[in-house]
Amino acid sequence: MPDSDALLPVPYLRRLDPVPERTFYVARPGIRALPSGTAAVMFFVALQSFTLFTLLWAIWWPGPREPREYAFSIGGTALIAATVIGVGWLLLRRYPGFVTAVLRSPFIRLTVTDRRVIWNVPWAAEPLLEIGRDRVLGGILGLVDARGYGHAAMIMVPGDPSADVDGNIHFDRLPDAESFVAALARM
Question: What's the domain range around 135?
Answer without folding.
Answer: 23-33+106-186
